[in-house]
Amino acid sequence: MNVDTTRSTLAPFPRDPAAAGHAHEVERPARPSPRLADALARQRTGRRFIVAGFVVSVVGVVLYCVASFAGGLDADMGDLLFRNSVPYARATLGIIGLGTLVWLVGSVKYLHAVMDGAEEDGAQPQ
Amino acid sequence: MGSGVATTGRSGNRLAEHLRKGLAGMHPAYFAMSMATGIVSIACHLSGLRELAALLFWINLAFYAALWTATIARAALFAPAFLADWSSHQRAPGFFTTVAATSVLGSQLVLLRQAHGPALALWILALVLWAACTYSVFVALSIRAEKPTLADGINGGWLVAVVATQSICILGCAVLPGAVADRDAALFFLVAFWLVGGMLYIWLISLIFYRYTFFRFAPTDLMPPYWINMGAVAISTLAGTALLGAGGDSALLASIRPFVKGFTLMWWATATWWIPMLLILGIWRHGVKRVPFGYEPLYWGLVFPFGMYAVATWRLVEAFELPFLAWLSRGFVVVAVSAWMLTFLGFTGRLVLTALVALRAVRRPLPAGAPSAAPLDHPSPGGSR
Fold first, then answer.
1. What is the pLDDT of residues A110-124, one digit of tens each?
2. Residue at B378 is within a domain
3. B239 domain-assigned
4. Residue B330 is part of a domain; what is its CATH number?
5. CA nearest A123 in B: which residue?
6. Quick check: is A97 in a domain?
7. Quick check: B130 pLDDT over 90?
8. CA distances (Å), B74 to each of B20, B27, B93, B176, B383, in order?
9. Which domain does B276 fall in, by range?
10. B307 part of a folded domain
């Protein structure tokens, strides 16, 4: 049982699980047990969270750079966060934080589901 | 109770196995993570994003220390695998990333902390590593009895040898002329490094371009380090501008100044030429041939060229007084920070995985009858990482 739990932590995710090395997704029995089906569903949800987190984080990074270039280079983080010295910079830092949080939640969800799936898959008669 | 201890032990073994496999297969090019973080930090600093630059500096310091710890542990615990890498055409050039990472950290110390003393110490360390890597890797590859074909043996990662050489020149320009009595001798030494780097680039890129155009080129062959085709000339540009800046009233530099300026501009033009080419090849690889993205340490070799191009362009703007190019540098700062963020999240995913494995080892021990070696395999096709 070879389980690739890491390949898909960089978005976007492949449609073809075999291409990503998700051997357990390929090798799963024709009729998965309820627990395995649940794990697969959680994997899909986690993957969506990861992609969304990636997109939001990168959008936040781009907006942060643009806002900083546009006005307020050399402002320190305290000024940005607490005095909002650079217009929109605080909001863009919030976007980066939100994206990272969504990504983290998605990663934990996805990896847990993959490990659950692997254990469940191993328990099933092949 | 005895059974509980046994199952916990088995789960603990699974974590140990997970970590052991990661360390055994650690790619020598993993120092690209430190290179990339360092150069993105410098790019942010130059373009005015000082807080982000400082944050990346501390992250890089942690990366650099962790990478040396892991490398030393690997050399001690998995000596055969470590030594085998020295004569591997695929992996041996990765050792040059230790040189570049050391020099980039030194440059960060100079720019962000004005710490010339520690930077000089890092320059000496980088020089020693450069000599060790250059004259062991290339000798080991030359005398190896069985060699791969050109198509299998060469890739963009080889150009890290150029990056390492030029990085010595760049950090040297920042710390050496002020630290030695004979400024001209120091500059002569650094010019020699810049020229050696240029020579290596011309040799290696000829082979790489030959491999591109005359051998079968599968989408999977276009690994992220191919972006170093561009990064190696970008760092050559930066080294040229560093020499121009460090020259001052040196008679040596004054006599070759037009040559240095001309070649610096040529390196920058070459770097710029590569960007659309590599973008199109990337679209072909991922968009047309549907090769999926997936985190691997070699992706740091893609982040580094973006940051280096931003820094090189910024310095070119300063050295040649070309303010109309400043927007290009800033654009690449944004690209570099975004690419760094994506790759960093991918890397953090690995850490999250390890944390989850550890958590399960503590909270959900394997049942007594379960096989203890249920592996959580890292993808390692062809042992490429």
1. 998 988 888 777 655
2. no
3. yes
4. 1.50.10.150
5. B370
6. yes
7. yes
8. 9, 10, 17, 33, 15
9. 2-366
10. yes
Residue B339 has pLDDT above 80, yes or no: yes
- Chain A residue with CA closest to B351: the answer is A6
Structurally, chain A folds into a number of domains equal to: 1
Q: Is residue B385 part of a domain?
A: no
Query: Could A10 and B333 be called an inter-chain contact, meaning their C-beta atoms sit closer than 8 Å?
Result: no
Q: What is the residue range of A80's domain?
A: 7-123
- Which ranges of chain B does DSSP label H, i.e. alpha helix? 2-24, 32-47, 50-77, 79-86, 96-113, 116-143, 150-153, 160-179, 183-214, 228-247, 251-282, 300-320, 326-363
Minimum distance, in Å, between the CA of residue A74 and any CA atom of chain B: 6
pLDDT exceeds 50 at position B331: yes
A69 lies in a domain?
A: yes
- In this predicted structure, the answer to whether residue A125 has a pLDDT above a threshold of 60 is no
In the stretch 21-50 of chain B, residues with CB closer than 8 A to chain A read: 47-50
Whole-number pLDDT of residue B375: 40
- How far, in Å, are A47, B229, B278, B286 from residue B224 at the CA level? 23, 10, 10, 12
pTM for the model: 0.84
Contact (CB, 8 A) for B129 and B198: no
Instruction: Note the pLDDT tens digit of each residue in B249-285.
Output: 888 899 999 999 999 999 999 999 999 999 999 999 9
Q: How far is B293 from chain A (nearest CA, A)?
A: 6
